[in-house]
Specification:
Strand 4 (58-59) and strand 5 (65-70) form a beta hairpin. It is built from 27 helices and 33 strands. Helix content is 33%, strand content 21%. The chain is α+β, with helices and mostly antiparallel strands and 960 residues long. The chain starts with a strand and ends in a 19-residue tail after the last helix. A 6-stranded antiparallel β-barrel has the order 8-9-13-12-11-14. A 4-stranded parallel sheet has the order 2-1-6-7. Strands 3, 4, 5 and 33 form a 4-stranded antiparallel sheet that branches.
């Protein structure tokens, strides 16, 4: 029996407490913790569905019908929601108001199958008034938004699962063995970064000179710069193209000419004011933040990555301090405009705001998905100072940015006056013309609150300064005359902020996805960060080259942008999902289909694909273990083996010039240095620097040649006949530790390395031997199949048996070692156990001893507060434990027949039990269709019959 309560389902557990408090006891608020189901993996598809859904989990022959399964980690969540549904008389699906949130709501409806009325509850800020308003004014499920999200998901699956395998076969793997991937937005973004690096590689720098001088009058001085010589303009950086050629007629001074001119100007000593020009101007404030502009400004001003900025913004939203952070809209509600204007007046006076409110309009056609810009929440804006005790450091910084930008957006224009002074100097037979500019703000307006940051500019020669009052005809003294040499610079590399801006300008992707896309290309090893700059790897060059040569349409910027426009049209109900997917996959008059492209790839030369010629004799190649130079000797024969030269890891592609390549080739080879003789076996120990890193190796000492004492000639050893020569045993090798260097390693250290693994001792209880060794993930102890991480490589040689036993006595948290706490907090309100911040093998994390939660990448671990730690643990606890991967055990190599038979019998019984346990209900598999969505939409507004529980339903033809 329903008890009159309304069940409200939100996405995030962080929202639950606040919303529950605002709605009161008549409501029960629970969280879905994001999506509860997704497209099935291949192994999750039942045998009877393999034929239709086996390749993509999508039936491409039947309206691209997807096959969904409930995530294993969400079965507990679904069970909890179904329990609450039994006592509810209405369901309010309060997921986010964008496409993703609409899709989550639809999936909840499909899985829960409520028999009570269902409505959509939409809000853009978590305040009491906003939540109550949303609960009272609900709407039906928007099927068009669901269609758009599902189309995007299907599109990405088709694209990724068809193109990525080609990368695996022809390029290889990414950083630390990471599988490569292709995607409609990530591939375009990677291509943009690679193209910028190509431009930098092709760039030809040009040199030019000018002259600077200090002009003075009555104790006031300012810097002037040579602008013209005998009426002709002097060359500036912007006068050259990327090939180092002039784009227009200018005077180019070399060093000798500039120094001679400087000497002549110094000798003249005075200059005359030829012209004084003053121009008034105004600057208007920028619009309030959208998702994209917030990511850009957080990058420029706070050095936050896009992912970090969005994570902090998510927390601010869920805590009720800002409005929804995924939006294309720059509009402000009337309430927000009034709040911003009132705050500007209270802080900066009546003149700080214009007579009429400012109204901003979004360029995005689909900005109606989220109706307002990112701003402080509420009818009145809380100042950053008033929230100091409620926010952590990053939250305070980002809130301050949002608050300032919002208030400034409603303030008056700034007014200024720019004055340019022109001076002439007679230098021998030439007339040198100098200029200087200065800007003075007569009214700061919005600049009192906020000024937008700027990206790096190339050839930025202009500098602003304050100028004294001068008049035409005034004579000024000239001193400190100095010739200045300049070189043109290539376009700056993308930063996260400038890449987000470029993606948005090209219409590629959506702002809500930019953070995750940049995260993907970083994780895949396509780009790395040098400071704020994004530097592409040679891996990215190979991937982009393959895509450009064989999937040109799919990485075309206009085509990718058109896909986004089409998805927007589907979201608005202007385009049909099925017809669009058929056009993309099978092709149409306007485009070649993905299927046709993949089926007609032809031969791809992997070696050529992964090669870049640097010089006539040196070729950059990208192999399994990274980039290297292959050097050929023109004088050697065609069968001569090429020389391999390693490339420093920190060398950017544009820095590998022909000159740098030759420097690497000519550098003495580090390694192949004899350290001494192993006293135990008489072998020589040599240190080498190989393609996979530095190592030491034992080699046989060369036997002295036999010399005929009478003649002094070398006697050739007789060739042995008979039995086949046995293969020589492989020499012992051992990699150097990360803390060691090829240049400094000695014989004693090398012998220690060759002796590994080191036997620490025997466990007195089990009798098992404990060894210390180095592995892929660092130093560790091993006892049978049980291992424990060591704190550093030095412990491999130093750790005692007592210390090793103490390590094994400590609790083992999965594969992560129990390290000492970096910080300690009060007890977790749920578990009642103290929370600690620790540094694990895979990064910092917080734990209460029961639940471990990783600190998000980009977030300062040492700035974590107790409240933030509780929030991270609560989110992780709500998601539930990660599913354990179970691999079939292999039978021991040596065993009796009886044991083998027993093992097989046990395995068979276990398999039978497992099969019996797994049911379709546990996975809650369901293929969906447009008809199902239509049914769901009707269910959301009705209260009676539940939808039929069928596994698959074919969609009827939609009306044209």
């Amino acid at each position: 029996m329903a008890n009159g309560k309304k069940l409200v389902i939100v996405e995030s557990p962080t929202k639950m407490k606040s919303i529950q408090g605002y709605l009161g006891d008549d409501y029960e608020v629970l969280s879905s913790v994001g999506h509860i189901r997704d497209l099935a993996s291949k192994k999750e598809i039942p045998a009877d569905k393999k034929a239709a859904y086996g390749k993509y989990s999508i039936d491409v022959e039947n309206d691209f019908d997807p096959f969904y399964v409930v995530n294993d980690r969400k079965t507990k969540t679904v069970a909890e929601l179904k329990r609450a549904l039994k006592s509810a008389d209405e369901v309010l699906l309060a997921t986010d108001g964008d496409r993703e949130g609409e899709a989550i709501a639809w999936h909840l409806l499909e899985v829960l199958k409520p028999k009570v009325p269902v409505r959509r509850m939409i809000f853009h800020e978590i305040t009491k008034d906003a939540i109550k308003e949303a609960a009272e004014h609900t709407r039906e499920l928007d099927v068009s938004l669901v269609d758009a999200q599902e189309t995007r998901r299907v599109l990405d699956r088709l694209y990724g699962w068809d193109v990525s395998p080609v990368l695996w076969r022809k390029v290889g793997s990414g950083r630390e063995g990471t599988a490569l991937s292709a995607g409609r937005v990530q591939s375009a973004a990677t291509r943009m970064v690679v193209e910028r690096e190509r431009e930098r590689m092709a760039f030809v720098s040009a040199s030019y000179w000018d002259v600077e001088a200090l002009a003075s009058q009555a104790g006031s001085s300012f810097t002037t710069r040579l602008n013209r010589l005998d009426g002709a303009p002097i060359a500036r950086g912007g006068d050259y193209d990327d090939n180092g050629q002039l784009k227009k007629a200018v005077v180019v001074l070399d060093e000798a000419q500039a120094r001679a001119l400087a000497d002549a100007i110094t000798a003249a000593g005075t200059a005359s004011v030829a012209k004084v020009e003053a121009k008034p101007g105004t600057r208007s404030p920028r619009a309030p933040f959208t998702t994209s502009t917030l990511q850009q400004e957080a990058g420029r001003k706070l050095s936050m990555s896009a992912k970090h900025a969005m994570g902090v913004a998510q927390r601010l939203y869920e805590k009720g301090f800002i409005t929804y952070m995924r939006t294309d809209s720059v509009a402000l509600s009337g309430q927000a405009i009034s709040a911003a204007r009132a705050q500007a007046v209270s802080l900066y006076g009546d003149k700080a705001v214009p007579a009429n409110p400012r109204v901003y309009k979004s360029k995005s056609k689909n900005a109606q998905e989220a109706h307002e810009a990112i701003r402080p929440s509420g009818e009145t804006f809380r100042t950053p100072a008033s929230l100091a005790s409620s926010l952590d450091r990053d939250e305070q910084k980002l809130y301050d940015l949002i608050w300032k930008r919002t208030v400034a957006s409603q303030m008056a224009d700034a007014k200024y006056e720019t004055t340019t002074v022109t001076l002439t100097v007679k230098a021998d037979a030439q007339v040198a013309e100098f200029t200087a500019s200065g800007t003075v703000y007569t009214f700061k307006g919005f600049l009192e609150a906020y000024e937008e940051g700027a990206d790096e500019k190339r050839n930025d020669d202009d500098a602003d300064q304050s100028l004294p009052a001068v008049a035409v005809g005034d004579s000024l003294s000239v001193s400190d005359v100095e010739p200045k040499g300049h070189s043109t610079s290539p376009k700056p590399r993308y930063t996260e902020a400038s890449l987000v801006k470029a993606l948005e300008e090209k219409g590629i992707g959506r702002p809500s996805t930019f953070a995750s896309i940049i995260g993907v290309i970083l994780d895949r090893g396509y780009v790395s960060k040098r400071g704020q700059a994004l530097v592409p790897s040679w891996l990215a060059f190979s991937v982009v080259r393959l895509l450009e040569e064989h999937f040109a349409d799919l990485v075309d910027y206009d085509f990718t942008a058109a896909l986004e426009d089409d998805l927007d049209a589907i979201a608005r109900g202007e385009q049909r999902r099925t017809e669009w997917l058929k056009s993309f996959y099978y092709g149409s008059e306007r485009q070649v289909g993905l299927r046709h492209i993949v089926d007609n790839l032809g031969e791809i030369d992997a070696r050529e694909l992964n090669s870049t010629r640097i010089t006539d004799t040196a070729t950059l190649r990208f192999g399994k273990y990274g980039p290297y130079l292959e050097v050929t000797d023109p004088a050697a024969g065609p069968d001569a083996k090429s020389r391999i030269v390693n490339i420093p890891e920190d060398l950017a592609p544009d820095e590998l010039t022909p000159a740098k390549a030759q420097e690497l080739i000519d550098a003495p080879v580090a390694g192949d240095r004899v350290l001494g003789e192993n006293p135990d076996n008489g072998k020589l120990v040599v240190v080498k620097d190989g393609r996979f890193g530095p190592y030491v190796q034992e080699v046989d000492a060369e036997e002295p040649e036999e010399v005929d004492q009478a003649t002094g000639e070398v006697v050739e050893a007789p060739k042995k006949r008979g039995a086949k020569k046995e293969a020589a045993p492989k020499p012992r090798t051992a990699s150097l530790f990360r803390s060691m260097s090829v240049d400094t390693v000695d014989l004693d250290t090398a012998l220690q390395l060759l002796s590994l693994p080191r036997v620490v001792g025997t466990d007195p209880e089990s009798g098992e031997e404990i060894t210390a060794q180095n592995g892929r993930f660092g130093p560790y102890l091993k006892k049978g199949t049980d291992s424990r991480s060591l704190d550093d490589e030095k412990q491999i040689f130093d750790i005692t048996l007592e210390q090793a036993l103490a390590k094994y006595a400590e609790p083992k948290y999965g594969a992560r070692r129990a390290s000492s706490a970096l910080k300690e907090f009060d007890a977790d309100p749920v578990s009642g156990k103290p929370i600690k911040l620790k540094d694990g093998r895979f990064g910092p994390y917080v734990t209460d001893g029961e639940t471990n939660a990783t600190v998000p990448r980009g977030e300062d671990a040492m700035a974590i507060t107790f409240e933030r730690a509780v929030e991270l643990i609560a989110d992780k606890r709500a998601k539930g434990p990660a599913p354990k991967k179970t691999a079939a055990r292999k039978a021991p190599a040596k065993t009796t027949a009886a044991k083998t038979a027993a093992a097989k019998t046990t395995a068979a019984k276990t398999a039978a039990k497992t099969t019996a346990t797994k049911t379709t209900a546990s996975k809650t598999t369901a293929a969906k269709s447009t008809a199902a969505k239509a049914t769901a939409a009707k269910t959301a507004s009705a209260s009676a019959a539940a939808p039929k529980a069928t596994t698959t339903r074919k969609a009827p033809a939609k009306k044209s």
